[in-house]
Amino acid sequence: MKLRRSERMVVISNYLLNNPYTLTGLNTFAEKYEAAKSSISEDIAIIKKAFEESSIGHIETVTGASGGVIFTPTISKDEARTIAEELCDRLSESDRILPGGYIYLSDLLSTPSILNNVGRIIANVFQGEKIDAVMTVATKGVPLANAVANVLNVPFVIVRRDLKITEGSTVSVNYASGSSDRIEKMFLSKRSLKPNSRVLIVDDFLKGGGTINGMASLLTEFDSTLVGVAVFADNTQAERDDKFAYKSLLNVSEIDVKNNKVTVEVGNIFQD
């Protein structure tokens, strides 16, 4: 397919955006668009400059016979903070208070543009880590984990609280629910996660921490490593004995049910 340079740069840019963290040889573009490798190299150099100046991402060139280019998505600190501050305003709405000290998040975590932006912010924090999979627990954390996994271009695995016959053989652990102090059980299909994986845990709302501790225990059953924990919102009022470090996009510092007031601030993900 022969294209003019301007057209070629558009389709190459689109390819890179949709295939992050993937090494692609220059020959792939040269053969597909019937252009010389030197022309493709010039295209990549222009795209690289534009991506970096716009904080879209970095393009790394790998030399050698098996070399090529790798695109790593990024987001600027200013853009990320602006997004978080807008979400603070949305989350501070008084009608979001739910029984038990929870906050209604479903409308935010079902909006594609919000999920995409939050996925970019979380993925940017962990871009320096080698991550093989993103883990979450069913069901509210699934869209968020999917968004992060899309940006990192890795699979995401879903831990379940009930046994599904469609999961096949499973591994289970008991964990103490941080919100109710009950002993509960969670399951993960043996086929979902390869042994010795490096895993990022993502969840929607952190309160007692029991669910995340349970998922961390599951990782040991798969001989896998916990790379990090990221949550959309953290209830800093909740009492818990954290056994893990975590990054939060938003901090819910006050839930005043009596006065129907919610206080939300940007999370520790913005701390240097």
From TrEMBL:
Residues 4-73 form the Bacterial purine repressor N-terminal domain. The keyword Transcription applies. Keywords: DNA-binding, Transcription, Transcription regulation. It comes from the Bacteria. Residues 107-262 form the Phosphoribosyltransferase domain. Belongs to the purine/pyrimidine phosphoribosyltransferase family. PurR subfamily. Homodimer. This is Pur operon repressor. The gene is purR.
